[in-house]
Amino acid sequence: MDRFIFRLFLIIGFTAMSAGIVFAEEEPYPIQLQTIEDNKKCYVCHSELDMKEHVMKDGTVRMLFVDQVVFSGSTHHEQVCTACHEDINMVPHGPEEKTVKCTHCHYMDNTFGAPTSEGDVDRYEKYRKSVHKRELDAGNPDAPDCFDCHGTHDIIVPTAEKSRINRRNIPATCGRCHIDEYADYKMSVHGQALARGELEVAVCIDCHGEHGVAEVHGSDSNVAAATLPETCAQCHAEEKLMSRFGIESAQYDTYRESYHGKANKFGLQTVANCASCHGFHDVLPADDPKSHINPDNLAATCGKCHTGANINYTRGKMHVEAADPSSGIIFIVAFMFKILTIGTVVSLVIHICLDLIRRFLNWRRRDAH
Amino acid sequence: MPTSKKEQLLKSIGERVDEAFGYIDKSGLGEDIREGIKDEVAGEVETFMRRTFDHSVKKKTHVAHTEQLKLEIDRQETILRFSLFFRIQHIIMFVSVLLLVFTGLPLKFNETAVAKMIFSSADAFMFAKMLHRIAATALAGVALVHLYFIVFMKEGRSNFIQFLPRFQDAKDALHNIKYFIGLEKHHPRFDRFSYIEKFDYWAVYWGIIVMVGSGSALWFNTQFMALLPKYMIDVMKEVHSDEALLATLALVIWHFYNVHFNPSKFPGSLLWWHGRMTVEEMKDEHPLEYERIISERAEKKLEAQVQDSGRNDSRSGEQS
Q1: Residues near A317 by Cβ (< 8 Å), separated by ≥ 6?
Q2: Chain A residues lying within 8 Å of B122, measured CB to CB
Q3: A337, B234: Cβ pair inside 8 Å?
Q4: Measured distance CA(A214)–CA(A135) in Å, rounded
Q5: Residues B267-294: pLDDT tens digits?
Q6: CB–CB contact B249 A345 (8 Å)
Q7: Residue B94 and residue B207: Cα distance in Å, rounded?
Q8: Which pLDDT value is given to residue B218?
Q9: Chain B partners of A340 at a C-beta cutoff of 8 Å?
């Protein structure tokens, strides 16, 4: 510990000394960048390798090095440095460098063509209401700002394969903080498919949302008990999409026909939803021995709610559709009841109609006399 | 010239009197005596006619009056068709069935606006679930009471025997349909339970067995599935859901029409409350039962009279 404090003092001392040399040399003078050529002025210092890190007043270490090659490849390469670092107007810089505000350009209906919206909703507005921004405002130092996901000098268009927010990289981007979830996801059927390059497979944002990400059990969450089935159904009820992967698409409808699905619909929190049985980040197909719905694991999975669940829980299809002849005895029972009901109701109604007609005729005859 | 029977009668009497007066004139008696006899004859005829006509008028009004009184008595006098115990069973049953329908069918038809209204929140859903189970318990309970009633009680046994389907019911049904389409002049004469009521009874009998059976499996699903495979509980769910609809339709269409909404009962009958039916209705709807009740009563009365007179005889015998 003593050694650590000693080293820290040493570092701070050295940095203060070198800064003192810089400050001692000349008085601060104003600087203005007009064209991207002027960015070279910044690179004079910021491309120096020994500018890599800087200890700030509050003790945090900040990257000051900018890789020219990376920046010239970024989507912002035609911007001057002060377009984002707007408070820099003196060399050497004052002590109050502010965090970059992306909303300086990326606001709704801007004239620079900076992308802002998801449909009609301002992305920043969504982010402002998200759990990330609320945590950030509450002073959580780990909560992400724009650049934590989008990157800084390396921002490229999301369609580019290397973009941090390209579909194939999103799990890794989120996983920088949500590391356990990322580990589960990588092993899941979704994660495996993504690694194979299937870009239509669900990544973090498809279930959790992106800028507007909410707490799991929050009222506007897409993955709370009340909303999860719809979230899964976005893809899993799409017949075309599912048929490409050889997955049934009636799962959502059959879930909604089950007691679980109906009780869930009317707001019961305790009944099973998709994730209760299939898992969420670690979802795996039934034939995988690690899957929650593998026949060997099913008794344990059902047993989470139905105490004493046994091998009987594996005998029969889970997502049953009574109208489907492959449902066997259930189909036969439903079909027989259909015939019985139609037959009964039709004969009763005919009997009643005949009775009414007879009563009407009798009444008219009595009236005529 | 139209003449009524009465006018014809008067005319012929007048002619006869004229004829009689002709004989008197021709008799050669004195003027005073002839007039006296004529007065006498006219008086006799007048008295006779007044007596005759008056009597016939009185008799006619008397008959009409009695008929009307009889109808009124028929309309007012009632016969107890269902005992208090019978009615209590029925009331508990229909209250619980209505509750079951209102808390159960919205789950089947959960897309409808009514379902969303009834299950307006998770609490409402849980409340409906609780009500459903309370009503189900009441229904199962009353079914057991009914089993006791039809096995161990004399009244229940006799009613159950009369509820059993007979060949006569098929004949009655055919007869009734013939009557509806005009091939028969009168509807069939039913006994205590017509085929219409027997259908109701047996529909409920079968319905309760099916619904209580499948409903128990769903209620105690963990215990059920400890013994039976998953597809059996799916069968139970399908049966419970489908029979619920069938039973509700039979109830609303058949039972409600036949006992409440048909033109002669509309807007509804209170038989379920007081258990009574007027003699007029009994004669029309259950003539065989009515006749049996009346003859049973008459026999009892006669027996009582015989016993009474026997007692009187013996008493008078003792006295002498």
Answers
A1: A327, B230, B231
A2: 266-269
A3: no
A4: 11
A5: 889 999 999 999 988 999 999 999 998 8
A6: yes
A7: 13
A8: 96
A9: 246
Binary contact (B262, A314; C-beta < 8 A): no
Interval B236-264: pLDDT, tens: 999 999 999 999 999 999 999 999 999 98
* Residue carrying the six token digits 């390396």: A154
Type of residue found at B45: V
Distance from CA of A130 to the nearest CA of B (A): 27
Cβ pairs A/B, distance under 8 A = 110
Are B122 and A267 inside 8 Å of each other by CB?
yes
In chain A, the residue whose alpha carbon lies closest to the alpha carbon of B221 is A306
The yes-or-no verdict on residue B103 having pLDDT over 70 is yes
Instruction: Find residues 196-255 of chain B whose CB sits inside 8 Å of chain A.
Output: 218, 221-222, 225-232, 234-235, 237-239, 242-243, 245-246, 249-250, 253-254
Contact with chain A for residue B263, Cβ under 8 A: yes
What are the chain B neighbours of A308 within 8 Å (beta carbons)? 222, 226
Segments of chain A scoring below 50 in pLDDT: 24
Q: What is the pLDDT of residue A12?
A: 67
DSSP state of A98: P
Mean pLDDT of B174-190: 94
Of residues A311, A334, A274, the one with CA closest to residue B234:
A334
**How close is the nearest chain A Cα to the Cα of B302, in Å?**
40
Q: Which pLDDT tens digit goes with each residue over B193-215?
A: 999 999 999 999 999 999 999 99
Question: Mind giving me the DSSP string for chain B?
Answer: ----HHHHHHHHHHHHHHHHHHHHHHTT--HHHHHHHHHHHHHHHHHHHHHHHHHHHHHHHHHHHHHHHHHHHHHH-EEE-S-HHHHHHHHHHHHHHHHHHHHHHHHHTTTSHHHHHHT-SHHHHHHHHHHHHHHHHHHHHHHHHHHHHHHH-HHHHHHHHHHS--HHHHHHHHHHHHHHTTSSSS-----SS-HHHHHHHHHHHHHHHHHHHHHHHHHTHHHHHHHS-HHHHHHHHHHHHHHHHHHHHIIIIIIHIIIIISTTTTT---HHHH-EEEHHHHHHH-HHHHHHHHHHHHHHHHHHHHHHHHHHHHHHHHH-
Look at B5 and B20; give whichever has higher pLDDT. B20
Backbone angles phi, psi at B78, to 5 degrees: -115, 160
For residue A253, the chain B residues in CB contact (below 8 A) are none
Q: What is the model's pTM?
A: 0.78
Say how many residues make up chain A.
Answer: 369
CB-based contact, B110 to chain A, within 8 Å: yes
